[in-house]
Design a protein that fits this description.
The chain is an alpha+beta fold and about 475 residues long. Helices cover about 45% and strands about 10% of the residues. It contains 22 helices and nine strands. Helix 4 packs antiparallel against helix 5 and helix 8 crosses helix 9.
């Protein structure tokens, strides 16, 4: 049975539409909603291979946390807690989506609900009401669901003691950890460890990052590899690795693409950083995009159609840190990709913190904005005006005049960026596109985009018909050059 491609209306959770998707086991809806079966007390992905229950025995929830909060346990067969995240939280720029991105980055675990609300500029009560109305669970329940998933990863793939797992996953006590794991997975932590697969080496954990198909993984990793900063990133044509500056310490990740997932091995100085590290890699690799919806619209265009058909599931590379993207965008003003890569590597070698984890190639984490602001501009190996812009922007970040994080308002960030001397529309748009994950950016002043438009005989106004996926359209155009 054919079911319409997921769109923004899906989150209204029309029961009949959801049931049709579940009955057809349509994997395109995994992560958009969850099927909870009243007779068994279990919740599943829409694509679960188990026998579809009768219509009157099921209910539908917009998040795993909502299902868990109502007493349902995760299916042991389809593992709904490991489904790709809803594309809505990446695509949308409203308050709920911004809150969801911050929760995924671990803000509730580090700063509490009050800290999350303060970042967004709303009261805790108002934020809780909005999240409960739209996602079916408040920020504490959403953070609890993420802690449970992190705990399961550590239990099954690491040699940490259960006590270490509990606190690394963000639980306040071992008892809370035990109770939550039993409630969510209908199994004790020791039982989950008994089903564990092969663990990584000492201090590492291997994670299978789910992804919606189709997935043009080789093209995505090639894009990142061409821009890999020496000492911070490396790409050998098969494996991508980079250093990570995380809330509690340093880390590294080594990743390889597959047809329907990315295999990522994390090495961390503090296990509390696992959830933020996973979330940042998902943003970097754009793993929560909805390629079916994107390709359906862009593929219908007379000019983009052949490009989409040649590379279905093309992703728009994001960022592990919007501030890193800001520095890279300024460095890359009016220089080639290779030139920007070289200059960024020299800056990292000159002012960045040395990596505290042994690695055969990686040597530094990307420099923080505080280090950039305090550095001598002569170290930046670029024109004086651009070096001055970099220092000026870094000081604005340090002074909290410019805030770029996963929960930042994209339109406001754009306005604040272009208001800074030395930042034009191209730089601001690039930061919002890659650093903040905006799917609808068109850099019409970009030289490569202009060449692609000329080759197709198009005017810049033609890009309006590609909304709300202009970022992906631009990546298809770049790929032709």
């Amino acid at each position: 049975m054919m079911v319409p491609v997921p769109d923004q209306a899906t989150l209204a959770l029309d029961p009949d539409r959801c049931y049709r998707a579940a009955r057809s086991r349509d994997a395109r809806f995994d992560g958009w909603f969850y099927v909870a079966v009243r007779t068994t007390g279990i919740y599943c992905r829409p694509s679960c291979p188990a026998i579809t229950p009768k219509r009157h025995n099921v209910e539908f929830h917009p998040s795993a946390a909502a299902a868990q909060q109502r007493g349902f346990r995760a299916c042991k067969r389809c593992r709904p807690d490991a489904a790709p995240g809803s594309p809505e939280w990446d695509r949308r720029g409203d308050l709920v989506a911004r809150a969801m991105r911050l929760i995924a980055d671990g803000v509730v675990d580090r700063e509490g609900v009050a800290g999350l609300a303060a970042r967004l500029g709303y009261s805790s009560r108002h934020l809780n009401r909005l999240l409960t109305d739209e996602v079916g669970a408040g920020p504490l329940a959403l953070a609890r669901a993420q802690r449970a998933q992190t705990a399961r990863i550590l239990i099954e793939t690491s040699a940490l003691t259960m006590t270490d797992v509990a606190f690394a996953a963000g639980f306040g006590s071992v008892r809370q950890f035990n109770d939550t794991v039993r409630e969510v997975y209908a199994a004790s932590p020791s039982a989950l460890r008994g089903r564990r697969g092969p663990a990584g080496g000492a201090g590492t954990v291997s994670v299978r990052l789910p992804v919606r198909t189709p997935f043009a993984g080789r093209e995505l990793f090639g894009f990142l590899g061409a821009r890999a900063i020496p000492g911070v990133e490396t790409w050998d044509g098969d494996t991508y690795a980079r250093s990570l500056a995380l809330p509690n310490g340093h880390g590294t990740v080594t990743a390889r693409p597959a047809a329907d997932h990315v295999l990522a091995a994390f090495c961390l100085t503090d296990w509390r950083d696992l959830a933020p590290a996973v979330g940042r890699m998902r943003r970097l690799l754009d793993l929560d995009a909805d390629p079916v919806a994107i390709d359906e619209q862009l593929g219908a265009d007379a000019h983009l159609g052949p490009l989409v058909a040649a590379t279905p599931g093309l992703r728009a590379a994001g960022s592990v840190d919007p501030y890193e993207t800001l520095v890279r965008a300024i460095v890359g003003q009016q220089v080639s990709v290779a030139g920007a890569r070289t200059v960024a590597g020299r800056i990292a070698a000159a002012i960045a913190d040395p990596l505290t984890i042994d690695h055969p190639v990686l040597t530094h984490v990307f420099p923080s904005m505080a280090r950039v602001a305090a550095a001598d501009p002569a170290l930046f190996a670029m024109p004086a005006t651009r070096a001055a812009t970099l220092c000026r922007v870094a000081r604005a970040v340090v002074d909290d005049e410019l805030v770029l994080d996963p929960g930042a308002d994209r339109a406001d960030a754009m306005r604040r960026l272009v208001a800074l001397r030395g930042i034009g529309p191209w730089t601001a748009g690039y930061v919002v596109m890659r650093g903040l994950g905006d799917p609808d950016v068109m850099l019409d002043t970009d030289l490569g985009v202009r060449h692609a438009f000329a080759a197709f005989g198009l005017e810049p106004a033609a890009a309006d018909r590609w909304r709300p996926w202009r970022t992906y359209a631009m990546h298809h155009l770049w790929a032709t050059l």
